[in-house]
Design brief:
Its main location: membrane. It contains nine helices and no strands. It has 235 residues and is mostly helical. The chain has one domain. Helix 4 packs antiparallel against helix 9.
Length: 235
């Protein structure tokens, strides 16, 4: 990606793009690790009832502490997946991540139709006006982050067997539509279930001891882990 910008816009703009590119990928890496860490913490809480779920002070063993689980995950899973220098290899892990994201969406939808009354308010959430235009624009960066994939587009295109323009457009549009469908359904049904009390991470709004939610949380972590090697490869 940086090479394309350098060739089209010149060396100075190319250098600036490289700096912004690395800074952007660094911030993405930190955000992804934060999300994975939250899911690991909730998974450990669900496995050990004496933890935060029961309201008592957490008494987790050392191997369930986030200070151990997160570095172990990075060293044993993320690093081996990041070793191959060909982005085409990541398609196998990306398929698993996509299926995991679809499972999460399915869980949120089914929970709304089957357990909405026990999880949230029995009344459907009433639409409320935004307090200001600033509150509307404040969510735009989050939405853009969810659809941010232009850093990988050049590397993905170069790994495709059929590099015709029409095929690339079809792949790009279909991929974005799948993302839009997954994001929209998850956000919509999460809000319909919990209303304005929904957590920023919708899984945090569900009981931590629900087996279906535990599996969803585990698979959500898998989907994040499969993204991380692509970020490392691009950086």
């Amino acid at each position: 990606y940086q090479g394309v910008v350098r060739a089209v816009c010149g060396a100075s703009v190319g250098k600036l793009c490289e700096v912004c590119f690395l800074l952007n990928l660094f911030m993405i890496s930190v955000a992804l690790l934060r999300v994975v860490g939250d899911q690991l913490e909730k998974l450990c809480d669900s496995l050990y009832p004496n933890g935060t779920l029961s309201g008592a002070p957490p008494q987790l063993p050392w191997y369930a502490d986030q200070r151990f689980t997160l570095p172990a995950l990075c060293g044993l899973v993320i690093f081996p997946l990041s070793v191959p220098r060909e982005i085409g290899f990541q398609k196998y892990s990306s398929i698993l991540g996509t299926l995991a994201a679809c499972y999460l969406t399915l869980v949120v939808i089914l929970k709304y139709h089957l357990e909405a009354e026990s999880l949230g308010s029995s009344e459907p959430p009433q639409p409320s006006r935004a307090s200001s235009w600033a509150s509307i624009f404040s969510v735009i960066p989050t939405i853009c982050f969810g659809f941010q994939c232009h850093e990988a587009c050049v590397a993905i295109y170069s790994s495709m067997r059929n590099q015709s323009f029409s095929h690339w457009v079809a792949v790009s549009v279909l991929s974005m539509l799948i993302c839009l469908l997954i994001y929209s359904l998850t956000g919509l049904y999460g809000y319909l279930t919990f209303g304005e009390t929904v957590a920023s991470d919708v899984l945090m709004s569900y009981p931590g001891n629900d087996p279906v939610v535990i599996v969803a949380r585990l698979l959500f972590g898998v989907s994040i882990v499969t993204i991380y090697p692509i970020v490392v490869l691009l950086g």
